[in-house]
Queue: 2 jobs
Job 1
Amino acid sequence: MYTLYGIDESGSCMIEIALQRCAVPWRRVDAASWAEGEGSDELARINPLKQVPTLVTPNGQVLTESAAILIHLGLEYPASDLLAGNRAQIIRGLVYIAANCYSA
Ligand SMILES: N[C@@H](CCC(=O)N[C@@H](CS)C(=O)NCC(=O)O)C(=O)O
């Protein structure tokens, strides 16, 4: 079971869509640096930056960085078609957004 730390109206929604496309069991823990609560406390213990999305894989690995999470899921579950098409351009686009748009 994947555990996604995230919250409505944040970047974690794209990982929710990706997990749906992978057809894997997953659950969401409501968490964000701006939201007080048990989920956010739990998130702080596994990701000191308290950023969402943060994904815990079934074998307990903690993954941060939206682009890395999407690439991981696309490689792990090819039938999701997350990386279908021109893979070089898809990865370039993901890194472009992370490098140039997210922080801005
Ligand atoms: N480099 C991260 C950035 C994630 C990020 O900045 N997420 C925002 C929400 S969409 C966040 O958690 N911001 C709160 C904070 O940085 O304290 C990624 O690409 O996933």
Job 2
Amino acid sequence: MLAVKVPKREAEKIRKKLLELGVLAKGYAIKREGDFVLFPVTGQVEGFELVESEFERLEKRYHSYREVVEVPEELRPLLPSSFDIIGDIAIIELPEKLMPYGRVIGEAILKVHRHIKAVFAKGSKVEGEYRVRELIHLAGESRTETVHRENGIRLKLDVARVYYTPRLATERRRVFEKTQPGEVVFDMFAGVGPYSILLAKRAKLVFACDINPWAIRYLEENVRLNKVNNVVPILGDVRKVAGKIKADRVVMNLPKFADRFLREAMMSVKPGGIVHYYGFGPEEDLFSEHEVKIKAVAKELGLSVEFLDRRKVRPYAPRQFNIAIDFKVE
Ligand SMILES: C[S@@+](CC[C@H](N)C(=O)[O-])C[C@H]1O[C@@H](n2cnc3c(N)ncnc32)[C@H](O)[C@@H]1O
């Protein structure tokens, strides 16, 4: 194709000129030849030295997999605009009608997001005691273990065996900001350690409990990976250890059932200590139901609570939110 050949030192000025004239050919890599630079052009350009040359084609840059995926036109509006990325694994929620196109959707994600190596579809809701979901392999490597970076820490985990969501990163950071040096923290539902390991960077000691053996296995690995030496992993039902631990700060990240563990949380907090409680609430009244339960349990135990903060953490389902309540126990 035709090219404008210019001395290297003038290249930038001439590139701008060619752009202005609208003659610079798009989608080709600019070429260097000794002290000269060759710009591919779409036609004759007066006032420049023109030569004939071959250029390498640049790959088109896409911003979304939706630009490249091929699905029937009537299903296009159903394509999700976002998906979760955990390490190098993508997890997408596909409506039933798009499931037959899972493989092409997965391949389109791999094509556009080069750092993603495996794509899965959500196969169920987060279920059971371990809070995990079924995953359906769509494309790329058939691997579910990865390392995810969040808040400056590395978390190794298996997306099929443990609970983990990247959507809580900001909330975890918020709890970290509130943590004071010297504190003892009790992470009642620790998972692979996104709270525990982060808070260990500031606290004196972190007790991290989980009932899922895979979660504790990865938590132990993450303790090593992040070189923290003040996390105590505890495998088992938190009901067995609660009360034996006395913490300045308790994290209750089990929103579906946290209300069932309020006694354990309050028994494990020192006077004046703080509990970070999570739950789900309807848009029209996010917090009341939870606050009533918190007050009732405190009363039963002869304690009093002071509500310090209430937050909407993230949307959870239509008109439902994941909420957080911080309260002090005296
Ligand atoms: C919603 S996940 C949160 C994990 C982690 N905190 C995070 O942010 O990724 C809740 C965790 O609680 C654990 N769990 C559920 N019931 C439990 C119990 N009775 N005792 C200890 N852990 C429990 C589950 O295995 C799961 O890992």
